[in-house]
Amino acid sequence: MFSHLPQPAFVLVRPQMGENIGAAARAMWNFGLDRMRIVAPRDGWPNPKAVAMASGAGRLLDEAILADDLPAALEDCSFVFATTARPRELVKPVYSPEAAMKLAAQKIKAGEKVAVLFGPERAGLENDDISRANAIISVPVNPEFASLNLGQCVLLTAYEWQRQTQEIADEVIELGKTDWATGHDVEALVSHYESRLDEAGFFFPLTKAAGMKVVFRNMFSRMPLTRADVQMLHGIMRQMVRWRHKNDPGGDGPENGSGNAPEK
Amino acid sequence: MFSHLPQPAFVLVRPQMGENIGAAARAMWNFGLDRMRIVAPRDGWPNPKAVAMASGAGRLLDEAILADDLPAALEDCSFVFATTARPRELVKPVYSPEAAMKLAAQKIKAGEKVAVLFGPERAGLENDDISRANAIISVPVNPEFASLNLGQCVLLTAYEWQRQTQEIADEVIELGKTDWATGHDVEALVSHYESRLDEAGFFFPLTKAAGMKVVFRNMFSRMPLTRADVQMLHGIMRQMVRWRHKNDPGGDGPENGSGNAPEK
């Protein structure tokens, strides 16, 4: 009953101790989740300590998708949550685990691929990781004592997934089949804009360029972009570049004859 | 704010390993609970391993009420929940952690003293223990894999207590005062892009131009844009236009010296 339902992928980003990877697998499987992805584990892979700790949930480790970096791990995902204890100054919507898993359930029911990122034990997710997420999950812990470890954070999120999907199991949610952009699409869009804007001298002064790029990436990853939006945004940039390279400043019309109307 | 509220007592019944007692203290204090009772701990009391594991939550151990047996620990309690993985044949109401903590909150508000029992690591609560409870809490885990340990069971129950008693836990928390763009801002942005893209020949062929503008406007009005986003998007377009009007195609850097770093 449990594992055949569509479900979010839980992505462990640069996890350090094998024991914690194993504990995360157990926490997930307690609530019927079995799609684990692992990005650049510190001690390599496979990890015997993870296997020993996972015991009955070892299958999750065998089937885990290993990735070298976060963009590779998120290639097929259209909506990404990042868990963090301190939402800091990030301008992204912040959800409780409950609200996040409710939203995840709706999105998954509508055909989206959803991922939840969990950071490394000591430091948590970095700003660059978070810039690839659409929204934040923050567990509302005691402000005087926030000490959830990786396994506990996974446990609470998995628990809420199970709670939300049990509750909505009877409801019928018919969302239109929106063709959402995947992480891969957004990544390609950001790269396209970044390289052209670099050429055009947008990221200036140089000392602020790196920070500006994070702000820029954050903006696009926060937006609910469809594939058609992404196509249009690519088209806008392509046209601005074509226009720039045309010698006749007074001319108009694109250089190729295909036009810019989006497919949809 | 947290610990001065009336709250249930969490009663560890014959706990075995000190580490688990410490982990339970941490789990409780993460969600603002600090009334621990301990019945006949296997390794005596105080327990240095419990203290080491509790770290920042050590106060809970110092203040824990120690009892020789369960009746002594429950002397002042008017309503008792027992946590168990297998509610078995017991003729008692069985609650999810959520429903149980909702009921606990109501009873505590009405002046009752509520306790929650957690059994020893290996075997869980015995029938004799459960016979002293008014109701059962059972976490709805995966029937194929039920492996919550003591600390995890305490964590989920404490989390639900906090959720039931904090109204905002259900809501999306908007961190900080996000400075959202107004309709006026978005309108100005769309006009700016439209007129420049018109110049650049983006809306082509002419027969489709009106439809494309609608799609374009829809895209921006659908996005959760902040003022900073709008500024950045204006800046991108301004820079592309400056670049286009520069005569030296190999040059780089913006023409004005102010740079493009967003305000925030």
From TrEMBL, chains A, B:
Lineage: Bacteria, Pseudomonadati, Pseudomonadota, Alphaproteobacteria, Rhodobacterales
Family according to the record: Belongs to the class IV-like SAM-binding methyltransferase superfamily. RNA methyltransferase TrmH family.
Catalytic activity: cytidine(32) in tRNA + S-adenosyl-L-methionine = 2'-O-methylcytidine(32) in tRNA + S-adenosyl-L-homocysteine + H(+); uridine(32) in tRNA + S-adenosyl-L-methionine = 2'-O-methyluridine(32) in tRNA + S-adenosyl-L-homocysteine + H(+)
Summary of the function given for this chain in its UniProt record: Catalyzes the formation of 2'O-methylated cytidine (Cm32) or 2'O-methylated uridine (Um32) at position 32 in tRNA.
Database matches in PANTHER family: TRNA/RRNA METHYLTRANSFERASE (PTHR42786), TRNA_RRNA METHYLTRANSFERASE SPOU TYPE DOMAIN-CONTAINING PROTEIN (PTHR42786:SF7)
Assembly notes: Homodimer.
Domain tRNA/rRNA methyltransferase SpoU type: start-end pairs: 10-159
NCBIfam families: rRNA_methyl_1 (TIGR00050)
One Pfam assignment: SpoU_methylase
Keywords linked to the UniProt accession: Cytoplasm, Methyltransferase, S-adenosyl-L-methionine, Transferase, tRNA processing
Localization in the cell: Cytoplasm
EC code(s) of this entry: 2.1.1.200
Coiled-coil stretches: none
InterPro entries in UniProt: Alpha/beta_knot_MTases (IPR029028), RNA_MeTrfase_TrmJ/LasT (IPR004384), SpoU_MeTrfase (IPR001537), tRNA_m1G_MTases_N (IPR029026)
Protein species of origin: Pseudophaeobacter arcticus
Annotated protein name in UniProt: tRNA (cytidine/uridine-2'-O-)-methyltransferase TrmJ
GO biological process: methylation
Region (Disordered): 244-264
Gene3D superfamilies tied to this protein: 1.10.8.590, 3.40.1280.10
UniProt-recorded Gene Ontology molecular function terms: methyltransferase activity
Root EC class: transferase
